Amino acid sequence: MRRPKKYESGEATQYISRRAALRKLQLSLNDFRRLCILKGVYPREPKHRRRAQKGSSEIKILYHTKDIRFLLHEPIVWTLRDYKIFAKKSGRDRAIKDFRNLKRRLALFPEIKLDHIVKERYPTFIDALKDLDDCLTLLFLFSTFPSLHLIPREQSNLCRRLTIEFLHYVIASKSLRKVFISIKGYYFQAEIKGQKVTWIVPHYYPFKPQSRQEVDFKVMSIFVEFYTIMLGFTNYRLYHGLNLAYPPQFPSSMLQDNEDTLKDETSFVSERIAALNFELLRTDKVQEDEEEPDIDMELLEQDGDSKRIIKMKQEAQEIARLRNLFKGLKFFINREVPREPLVIIIRSFGGKVSWDSSVFSGSTYDESDETITHQIVDRPSLSTQYISRDYIQPQWVFDCVNQRQLLPTNKYFLGEQLPPHLSPFVDAKRDTYIPPEEKALHDPSLIETHAQSDDESEEEEAAQNEDDTVDQELLDAQLQRAYQQETAEYKKYGGPDGVNEDEEDTDDEDFDDEQESDDEEEELDEKTKRLQEEKKKMSVQSGKVHKVNKRQLHKAEVDEHRLQARMVKPRHRNLFRKLIREKQSKEKEEWLLRKKRRNIDNDTKEAKKLAKREAKKAAAAAANAASQLGAK
Amino acid sequence: MAAQEPATKRKRISKKNKAAWRKTDIQDVEQFLEDQRQEERIGTFTDKQNEDLFVVDASPLKTAPSQLTIKQKRKLNALKPMRSHQALENTSKVQDPIVKRNHVRQKKSGRNIELEVCNPTKPRHRQANSDRGLYYEKLDKELAVRESGKKVPKVDKDIWQEEDFRDKIPGLKDEKGWISRDLALHVAGNIGRKVVKTHASLHHKTTKAKKFEAPHPGMSYNPSLKAHQELLAEVVEREESIIKKEQHLKRVTTAMFNKVTPEERDKRRLNEMSEGIKEDGEPESEDEADPKSTDNNYSTVNAPVENKKKSKAARNKELKQKELQRLHEAKKALKKQTADLIRIKSIRAEVQEEAEELKEIKKRRKAAAERKKFETKRLGRHKFEEPDLDVNMPEDLAGNLRNVKTESNLLTDRFKLLQKRNMLPTTVAVTRKRSKVKRFPRSSHKEPGVSFQDLRDRRKAAAAAAKANSDTIKI
Fold this sequence. Notes:
The complex is a heterodimer of chains A (632) and B (475). Chain A is 57% helix and 7% strand. Chain A has 632 residues and is α/β, with parallel strands linked by helices. Chain A has 5 domains: 11-107, no CATH class; 115-244, no CATH class; 306-426, Rossmann fold; 465-499; 569-631. In chain A, strand 4 (185-192) and strand 5 form a beta hairpin. Helix content of chain B is 47%, strand content 0%. The model of chain B is unreliable at 1-7 (pLDDT under 50). By secondary structure, chain B is mostly helical. The two termini of chain B are 108 Å apart. Among the domains of chain B are: 159-198, no CATH class; 224-272; 325-375; 383-425, no CATH class. Chain B has helices at residues 5-9, 18-22, 27-42, 50-53, 70-79, 113-118, 123-148, 165-168, 181-191, 225-252, 262-273, 291-294, 312-342, 344-372, 410-420, 452-471. Chain B contains 16 helices and no strands. The chains are: A alpha/beta (632), B mainly alpha (475). The interface between A and B is large, with 90 and 70 residues. Chain A: Required for maturation of ribosomal RNAs and formation of the large ribosomal subunit. Chain A: Residues 450-470, 488-570, 603-632 are annotated as: Disordered. Chain A: Its main location: nucleus. Chain A: It comes from Drosophila navojoa. Chain A: This is Pescadillo homolog.
């Protein structure tokens, strides 16, 4: 038997150095890099480097031998070799100034076909969606680039086109979920086919040149090359899923014969498409109802209402509400506000939007339109203002989306100091203890109720207290202050705010409704009596109140838990225990923190009470002294 | 003629021998013959017409300069036969003595493409012609597309549509189930339309870490105070650790060695380099004074090896000792075994403890391996370093969208992310160092100096100033 030599089997044969791979594929380093990126073959780290490198301990770039063998069969390797030939031949033509031949050659430049690679790397559509994060961020970034060395203009134009198409899809499908303005750029998160797709759009600032020391532009350009093809196919599939014509088009009704369209139809259409303000042409004739058939929650309820199902139900309801958040609202975007992100957000939640026609083509109505409800402004003051609309800062739109409800606009008025813009990616409903201050930031209604409850408790205390007259005075003073503030605001904005007006209106209506209903009740008394009699005739007996035995319930719960613990497979037992332990510790921690907080709150309250009592006593004493003085 | 005169003087010369004959002047005969041959070649004057010999000069005296440009002249010259070939031209009037000559046509090297194209005779010519036609058709199409400026990658199909390879090849799909899938695969392969399975490593995930890392809430353009403080604290912590590391390195390397002044260093170097070289003043023969060196005897420091033989008795004794030692050891081992029998319980505990320890180590290793799956791997020569956190300093926070100060570069960010996810090996951009070029002014180039004119102007100006100075009356 032959004695096996060293490094003929095992890890040494599993890995291949880059240099060896180049030799095997007969490609140059640049071509190899390109091939690897396009095919998704990445370098690997071996377990034992010295074994994998046949005894050498320097750190080399290694690939799996199988990967490289797999690359050998790739048809684009031939195209890459054709490039080399092309470069040589066209170089020769250029050198001898044979321009006729050169032109012919340039026209037949060997194109790389990547369709099959997309399919290969993402066997299912969902796989492609999972990898869309990087793709979108890079393409959005590249769409802002001018033509640079190693980044041709066509590439950035293509990026722009594809991203606009994708945004049209997001708007049409109303799949946007979260938005966030960071110092990096705008974060968007959409939910497409159950996958969360997040991308970053850079801030709309002029292009800043970048040093080539930091980033390898060539590599990034290759990534973009692949991602453009991938996004093209993804867009195609997404559009067809919504019954939209894929290269996006307008319905023919939109294209009336006017000067612009007659001059250059294609550019007119592409500009309107880039404006993101029009609905696209559908392939099916019937315009479907906006309401999608949601998941039938009743069917899911077979399991009984477990916590998860309830949560899912709530989530579905919330999302249904979110999708029509801005329905019926009409926005106008001022010139200084970045147009694109706001248009995407407003349109994908059902709002209508327009802008100054000098900023970008595709505006639908003017600033002077009286039906506009909100004008988005980002400057300290405006000279001409309309009473009929709210002047808000752009953050309002973002915060509304993140909190999934229309927030009161008064905090976001023109020139107002804005409340902090919170990240939606931090889960506000996470299981751990959240201090009330943070809760209030997420839901401003909470803090108000908190304050109210404080007031109530104070009132109660006041009732208990003997000298309630002083308290009344204090209350009066508070009311006075509130009134003064209101009048100050009134003066500041030169008119009553839309919201306040609305509130008043609704209040009035409520009053009216109540009165009307009272009247009606008297009239309809006879009818109802008859109905009740009829009802009594039917043989339905009143049911008994079902008493819930709390102890039994708890016991059942515990039993269920035990059963659950038993059902766990032996190999998962440890994990299960760990999870339970973690949950318990978390609960305990939360309870402790809450207790601590409660104690602190009580202490402060006590201190406050004491202080107040003393103040009251002092005031009473002073009043007494004054009255005595007056009597004297 | 003057050269021939002395020859005519001597009328008769002896023609006795060969040498004498050589002196004979035959020039006149040769001249005559030459003239005759020339006449034969170009004809006599009598044969020629007057028009051939003379030209009436009708042009004006001065010829107008030619209107041709240099380029045109060159072109005309290029049409003319080359000067160098003029010598090869046959200018003789003598007719070819051989009336009928066999014309030999030289065989052309290579193929006559023109002929092949114009009247193809062979099938391969026809094939080539049709191929060429197709090529130009394609070329025309490409050129037309390029002209219209609509060169975009075509996306006109849904690549993710489920499709069966059997649909493409007729006869492979049957409802009755006669052809199994395996058979269909086999047939497709033999037809030449092999169905290839993609390699599993194509779907290899480079890292287990989450793809999307949520931005820190403090990175908001208008962050809450708490979030911003947290982010700042994080940045500070990171910076501090860097500083600490730097200080450690400095302490361990630079600060570890004591310093000397440059003069001291030079002096030390000189001393070190001149070690062993004698100075002039020193006496040379220190070694010569040594008495040993004068002897010719060779001697080493080590003592010479002696082959000491052991006696047989000594060997026997040694063997006996060895045997005794062995026995002693065995006895000791046996004794220990019996002793261990008693403390078997504690041994079991020891073994268990050891096993537990091993288990712990195993567990720890496993956890470490698992953790490593989430981390960035070492793919190349350079280690990946986390980029700095992006943070707006408190004074940069504007609080409105209009005045946002953007931090971080998205492109760099993406690039680093790809590196972090093990998709790219960490590299450092290398700039080629240019060799240092020593520059000096050409000798032909002179610095602009001072001319006489300048000097005179300066002198005049100085004089004027002095005069003005003397004219003014100082108070």
